[in-house]
Amino acid sequence: MKRLPLFLLFLGLLASGLRADTLTLTAPADYQVTQRTTRAGGKILITGRLASDTPPTALEARLTGTGTSGAWQPLPFKPGADEFRSELEAPAGGWFGLEVRALMNGKILAATNVAHVGVGEVFVVAGQSNSANHGEEKQRPRSGKVAAFNGKAWQPANDPQPGASGGGGSFLPPFGDALVERFQVPVGFVATGVGATSVREWLPAGTRFPNPPTILGHVTQLPSGKWESKGRIYSNFVARAQSLGPRGFRAVLWHQGESDANQRDATRTLPGALYAQFLTQLIRDSRRAMGWDTPWFVAQVSYHVPGDEASPDIRAAQASLWKDGLALAGPDSDALKGVLRERGGKGVHFSGPGLREHAARWVEKVAPWLEAQLGAR
């Protein structure tokens, strides 16, 4: 069945005497990706408002597109209520069209639709600049099936990614494209990275540490001489993840460490033991806040420029989280050098080829794990 554009649907409703404004959807949003629960599918949350003088006796929804039956399915709701919240069983895949209608004794009172909804894989991405939009060349998904969430709305995942710092490129579009090709489902990203941040700045409010990071905007010095996190980055990160709902994403991808390793002012460098302690706290505290055992991938990250290419102390701290079973192994991005870095290999951020290679390294770590997760369900 061919889907009508929204404006044609609206005109059709007017011609039939129906009021489109009596039925308003608040979820899902256009281009939203819902995390699947099995390889075969998941449930799409449908919420909205009813503003009709004649309360409907039934709500129905259907998905249209490849892999769907196109059959209308009832949506449970409380008769007479102004709002509704329900779930629709859906196959993995997309983009699908979603149509919702309100009926009174079999007669359609109102109808609306969403043009692009998908059931696939969602990832929260956190850390500093190389997890955000500080790459040398902006990237765009080629598959048309990669989307990004800014905390309020979904959109195609063209760089710069909404919700993260920077206005340049990221590894997310090519990473998403590779997962789309391999798993044949849409992929969604929630980018929360903040450039130049230390792990200390990601800690919950009030967490104390003995020495400050290089940039002080997210920390406070105490009368004792110690420092503490203001918690703003942590709160934003947790809120963005929670907005996806319980188990609403597959994993957190953590790429950070440059601002803790080998700082010019040695008093701002974070010892590896403290890095491991603070990242462990961040993972455990955020899991408690989200209410579930969120998987984390932790990359090996400490590269600055040629001649300052790695911190064994920070790398060992990152690897210790894998060995302790607290996190999964992310890629070794310190190994990406030369033309894979900006400014002809002189900078810390990735060039266009570097972003694409960075994406490929993430695929090597995430895809086999994801395949195992899907095989277990």
In brief, what are we looking at here?
With 377 residues, the protein is α/β, with parallel strands linked by helices. It contains 7 helices and 17 strands.
Fold blueprint:
Blueprint: H1 6-16, E1 23-27, E2 32-35, E3 41-50, E4 58-64, E5 73-74, E6 83-91, E7 93-104, E8 107-127, E9 146-149, E10 154-156, H2 172-183, E11 187-191, E12 208-209, E13 219-221, E14 227-229, H3 232-242, E15 251-255, H4 272-290, E16 296-300, H5 312-323, E17 328-332, H6 342-345, H7 352-375
Parallel strand pairs: 2-8, 8-11, 8-15, 9-11, 15-16, 16-17
Antiparallel strand pairs: 1-3, 3-6, 4-5, 4-7, 7-8, 9-10, 12-14, 13-14
Helix pairs in contact: 2-7, 3-4, 4-5
Task: Provide structural commentary.
The chain folds into two domains: 6-118, Immunoglobulins (Immunoglobulin-like), CATH 2.60.40.10; 120-375, SGNH hydrolase (Rossmann fold, 3-Layer(aba) Sandwich), CATH 3.40.50.1110. Helices cover 25% and strands 28% of the residues. The chain has helices spanning 6-16, 172-183, 232-242, 272-290, 312-323, 342-345, 352-375; strands at 23-27, 32-35, 41-50, 58-64, 73-74, 83-91, 93-104, 107-127, 146-149, 154-156, 187-191, 208-209, 219-221, 227-229, 251-255, 296-300, 328-332. The strands form three sheets. Strands 2, 4, 5, 7, 8, 9, 10, 11, 15, 16 and 17 form an eleven-stranded mixed sheet that branches. Helix 2 (172-183) runs parallel beside helix 7 (352-375), helix 3 packs across helix 4 and helix 4 packs across helix 5 (312-323). It is elongated and about 75 Å long. The protein starts with 5 loop residues before the first helix and ends with a helix. The model is unreliable at 6-18 (pLDDT under 50).
